[in-house]
Design a protein that fits this description.
Elements (H helix, E strand, L loop, with lengths): L1 H11 L2 H30 L5 H8 L9
Pfam family, one: UCR_UQCRX_QCR9
InterPro entries: QCR9 (IPR008027), QCR9_sf (IPR036656)
GO biological process, one term: mitochondrial electron transport, ubiquinol to cytochrome c
């Protein structure tokens, strides 16, 4: 009961705090989900993405002039 009372008094008692906590939670979850999926994608496709193979195809500026 103490946990539910604390939760009620902290978040659900006032509508403005409740709505704000929902928005902050959704924003935080969105950032965490995007970061996790990007890391998974980069790990799964390591060596196949342009950022991994760019050095094989792009020469530095001025290297071909000699």
């Amino acid at each position: 009961m103490a946990l539910t009372d604390t939760l009620y008094n902290a978040l659900f008692r006032r509508n403005s705090i409740f709505v704000s906590s929902i928005f902050v939670g959704a924003f935080g979850f969105g950032l965490a989900f995007d970061t996790a999926t990007n890391r998974f994608w980069d790990n799964w496709n390591k060596g196949k993405q342009w950022k991994d193979i760019r050095d094989k195809y792009v020469t530095p500026a001025g290297a071909d002039e000699e």
